[in-house]
Amino acid sequence: MGPRRKESGTKRAGAARSSSLINFRTTVNSGSVRRSSAHGDPPPRGTGKRLDLIRPDRKHSPPEVDVESQIFQEIRNRTIRTMCSHKNMPRSIWSLTPLQRKTVLQHILVNDEHRFLYCYVPKVACSNWKRVLKVLSGTLESVDANIKMDHRNDLLFLSSLKPEEIRYRLKHYFKFMFVREPMERLLSAYRNKFGEIESYQKRYGVEIIKRYRKGHAKDASVTGDDVTFAEFVRYLLDEDVERMNEHWMPVYNLCQPCAVSYDFIGSYEHLESDAEFVLQRVGAPADVHFPERQTWYKPVTTETLHYYLCSLPQRLLRELLPKYILDFSLFTYPLPNTTTEHCRH
């Protein structure tokens, strides 16, 4: 795992389509969208009720998005439309580089019965979404089944289909993805992979410590289980964003929201209501729900994120943020406040 050239995420020739916003969004302020037919019937205006008021019978109640989520959706749509209309942005997945196209196709999951595509993003509830997909395809009995998640088997990836099959599904299927505050997602990946997963400690942790910790370049006793956040960030700064591990690769590179015209971009911050909207939108059976977070799950709190970011040398943080600038800007997340005065508190 040798060092790679530095590359700012802002210089990457992303992928875009100027029309890339979001079909249901023309009525997003109304708050309600009914399931479209196989031919893509346009959604009518709705009532603007919150999701927690929806009847449990999905078959007879229209999917809705809560008001706060609607606002974020509309802002996000306008932002993506504007940024993706720039002439240096590719217009479809076919105008991406081979590496870019391979990445996005390997992260888009397919459900043919309910005619939807889901671009999974690690550390944004993707394990639970994969459970839902397996239940919908009949390979898992319940989303609450007490089993270890297999992230490859019993799942259909867009990359496994022929070009004409890919084109058809991109044109006709409902497409969605979920996003999360970039630094929160990054910290979640760091704490999970280097604090709990031995395979990541051996594969990445050992190399990071040998590369960035003084006097350890040839230390055979390094186990990789004590990588500091600053060391992890230094490693990220030397990585090409297009070749990063998927757990810390920018969401933009994973899902190419300009090249793929997503119908819905949900957020981790509104996970429960946005997930319920998607389940209703794709026509999932009423007994299929989005799984609750596991009891062992350790959330990244505002205080925790503040502590880790403020503990970084300012130079590292100034170089790190541009790597994820497209995630901040496209998905309308404010840059973190790490001024000296703010960090003092």
UniProtKB/TrEMBL annotation:
Extent of Basic and acidic residues compositional bias: 1-10, 49-63
Bias type Polar residues, positions: 17-35
Name of one Pfam family that matches: Sulfotransfer_2
Topology relative to the membrane: Single-pass type II membrane protein
GO molecular function, a single term: sulfotransferase activity
InterPro entries (alphabetical): Carb_sulfotrans_8-10, Sulfotransferase
Region (Disordered) residue spans: 1-66
Keywords: Carbohydrate metabolism, Glycoprotein, Golgi apparatus, Membrane, Signal-anchor, Transferase, Transmembrane, Transmembrane helix
Protein location: Golgi apparatus membrane
Gene Ontology process terms (BP): carbohydrate biosynthetic process; dermatan sulfate proteoglycan metabolic process
Highest taxon above the source species: Eukaryota
Entry's EC annotation: 2.8.2.-
Cellular-component GO terms for this entry: Golgi membrane
Record-stated family: Belongs to the sulfotransferase 2 family.
Protein name from the UniProt record: Carbohydrate sulfotransferase
Organism: Channa striata
